[in-house]
Amino acid sequence: MRKTGGDHKGRPYNGRSSHAQRTDTETAMDQRNFTGDYDTLLELVKTRVSVRNLKPDPIPDDYVTRILEIGRWAMSGANGQPWDFVVVKDAAIKKELFRVYAEENNDFIYWMEQQRDFKLRHPSFQMTHDEALQKQRTGVGWSIAPVLIVILGDGRRQWATVQGAHTFGRDQSHLTDGLANTAMMMHLAAGALGLGSQHVTIHIQEPFKRVLGVPDLLTFSLIMPIGYPAVPPKEGVRRPLDDMVHHETFDMSKYLTNEQVLKYLYGLREKTVPVYSHSYTGRPPVPDGGKA
To answer: For the chain, first and last CA: distance in Å?
Structure first.
């Protein structure tokens, strides 16, 4: 029979021993408290943007190790940890990776972008008249970054998770989730060390695999150039928090019609094109028809 009321000292009794209650209290007190670091974290994530113009100056090996260590602790489905990292410092290899990116990967992206309205195209395919930006983007680009971190995915490791999580029915899986998680954590680590980073997504994997000798079975997910920024910092662009938060149920007043989505996309491009230009040249974009 469950006891009710309190103990002999008048303290409420919840059916558990005083030892168990003390253990709970001690465990709670043992939890690490990071509350004081929230403002620092918020400032970091708000000011971290992709930097597409990095100095060639070397960075400490210890910084690279610290970034990789943070990435190692990323979340993954059932702790499958489906990632491998290739650290590239050799100038010739970096140059060859960038050649493949500029000549083969971007060729695919170029033709895909031609299918969209001009003002909805990726910023780099709108500012083709900006000679300085295009020279940086297609000339040397991230090949001069002192370090490239290549993130590879091994889908076999991700079989650690439940079978249903391999597709989600949307051509997405815990493999892509895990790789995105480790990448984001390494971007934040780089920012915390005063470094700039770029998220170079790879669409045509095979030629990159040949450069680094990556087995066919692995996924060549992305290249992350790391280095000291050659342009001043600039805060990114985000939607207001209230626009994306719903309470208890989905707020249909925030659901966009197709026309509203198009208006949003056009407006977003107007805001992000200057940020994108800044990440390459440290200045606003050159007006169409102007000289860089």
So the answer is: 84
Residue 290 has pLDDT above 70, yes or no: no
What would the two tokens of residue 85 be? 């990292």
Return the pLDDT at 31. Answer: 64
If one compares 127 and 156, the residue with the highest pLDDT of the two is 156
Residue 1 maps to a domain:
no
Q: What is the count of structural domains for the chain?
A: 1
Q: What 3-state DSSP class applies to 285?
A: coil
Closest CA to 221 of 156, 165, 150: 150
Tokens at residue 81, please? 């940890």
Tokens, residue 237: 């662009």
- Which two structure tokens, joined as six digits, stand for 116? 């969209």
Provide, rounded to the nearest whole percent, the portion of the chain with pLDDT above 90: 50
- Tell me the pLDDT tens digit for each residue of 62-89: 999 999 999 999 999 889 999 999 999 9
Q: CB-based contacts of 197: which residues, under 8 Å, 6+ apart?
A: 50, 51, 186, 187, 190, 191, 224, 225, 226
* pLDDT tens digit sequence for 160-200: 877 766 654 444 578 888 999 999 999 999 999 999 999 99
Helices (H), the chain: 18-30, 38-47, 61-72, 91-100, 106-113, 131-135, 174-192, 206-212, 241-244, 258-281
Is residue 209 included in any domain, yes or no? yes
What's the Cα-to-Cα distance from 270 to each of 86, 130, 260, rounded to whole Å?
A: 36, 16, 15
Assigned domain for 75 exists: yes
- Length of the chain, please? 292
Residue 44 lies in a domain: no
CATH number of the domain within which 81 lies: 3.40.109.10
